[in-house]
């Protein structure tokens, strides 16, 4: 992507109530990382990992900045969470991400034994927690994770659509 075509993200960050720490609360934090991604001229996807109600991993997509195709928001947040816990097993954690995870990130959640996955926008082409396939329910795997989609769908979808619309217009 050409940095000369970058514009500041037109979406404001969300300020969820601290009193109601539900799925939408944590997804709002993931969305705010997507805003950070846009402002870094990255595809606006954000993710957080939560343990006992506390965010222990928080990242946005950085594939362009790092020149690394594996630098998806989920991968970075999972790495931070494992570091924070001092344990690669994340059974007690939940991952919140603005878009349904791709094959790589869904695979990482299987090997990390992620307890629960919550996403905003479903991805019927590449999504691997139910959109295209469900890696959280591999028939021969002994690790399964619960997944919930459609949380804060509207802003999670709108920011991606607006970003790609802007990029197409700038081409
Ligand atoms: Zn991914």
Describe this structure in words.
- The protein has five helices and five strands.
- With 171 residues, the protein is of the alpha/beta class.
- The N and C termini lie close together (9 Å).
- Helix 1 packs parallel to helix 5.
- Strands 2-1-3-4-5 form a five-stranded mixed sheet.
- It is globular.
- The longest helix is centred in the C-terminal third of the chain and has 18 residues, at 153-170.
- The model has no long low-confidence stretch (mean pLDDT 94).
- Helix 4 links the parallel strand 3 and strand 4.
- Zinc ion binds at residues 72, 74, 101-102, 104-105.
Small molecules bound in the structure, each named once: zinc ion
Helical amount: 25-40%
Give the SSE order as H and E letters.
Answer: HEEHHEHEEH
Mean pLDDT: 94
Low-confidence stretches: none
**How far do the termini sit from each other?**
9 Å
Overall 3D form: globular
Radius of gyration from the alpha-carbon trace, in angstroms: 15 Å
- Record field, number of beta strands: 5
How much of the residues is beta strand, in percent?
15-25%
How many strands, what sense, and barrel or not for the largest sheet? 5 strands, mixed
Q: Give the strand order of the largest sheet, numbering strands 1, 2, ... along the chain.
A: 2-1-3-4-5
Structural class by sheet pairing and helices: alpha/beta
Work out the helix count.
5
């Amino acid at each position: 992507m050409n940095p000369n075509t970058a514009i500041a993200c037109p979406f404001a960050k969300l300020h969820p109530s601290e009193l109601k720490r539900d799925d939408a609360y944590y997804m709002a934090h993931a969305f705010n990382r997507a805003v950070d991604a846009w402002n870094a001229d990255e595809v606006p996807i954000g993710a957080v990992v939560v343990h006992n109600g506390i965010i222990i991993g928080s990242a946005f997509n950085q594939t362009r900045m790092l020149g690394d195709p594996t630098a998806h928001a989920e991968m970075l947040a999972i790495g931070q969470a494992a570091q924070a816990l001092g344990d690669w097993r994340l059974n007690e954690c939940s991952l919140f991400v603005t878009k349904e995870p791709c094959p790589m990130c869904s695979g990482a959640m299987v090997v990390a034994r992620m307890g629960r996955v919550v996403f905003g926008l479903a991805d019927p082409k590449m999504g691997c927690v139910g959109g295209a396939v469900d890696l959280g329910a591999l028939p021969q795997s002994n690790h399964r994770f619960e997944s919930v989609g459609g949380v804060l769908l509207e802003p999670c979808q709108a920011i991606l659509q607006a970003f790609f619309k802007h990029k197409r217009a700038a081409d």
